[in-house]
Amino acid sequence: MPKKDPTYERIERALYKDKDESTTILSPREMEIKKRMMLCVSKKMEEPLIPDTELVNFLIHGCGGNAEPISKSQAYRYDQPVSRKYPTSCNILVPVYDCRRW
Q: 74-98 pLDDT, tens per residue?
């Protein structure tokens, strides 16, 4: 029996699809997660150097009134896939800086 796709992998596949197509792939709970992730991606695109803690606070307080507030631990779980997919310039520059020192 094949293993079921993890939630975040299913959401990632449906991330940029329109709402009608996404609702056929994702459950209502996953649609809410997708909405929060898209709000995080938008915030990250507007402010590429936003610290992770600020993005977590954005999620905790309901994404500026656009989504339901979530707990701190849940917010960090949302932040990990978004930060991995859309890293900030600081995260990119740190390894480069370290290499130049040696």
A: 888 876 666 666 555 444 444 444 4
Helix, strand and coil in the chain, % to nearest 5: 70, 0, 30
What tokens appear for 96 in the block? 């480069």
d(CA 53, CA 79): 9
- Full-model pTM: 0.69
Classify 57 as helix, strand or coil.
helix
Per-residue model confidence as pLDDT tens digits over 13-40: 887 788 899 899 899 999 998 888 888 8
Task: Give CA–CA dist 30/71, Å, rounded.
Answer: 17
Alpha-carbon distance of 50 to 43, in angstroms, equals 8
| Residue type at position 92 | I
With beta carbons less than 8 A apart as the criterion, state whether 22 and 34 touch: yes
Do the beta carbons of residue 44 and residue 86 sit within 8 Å? Answer: yes
Query: What count of residues does the chain have?
Result: 102
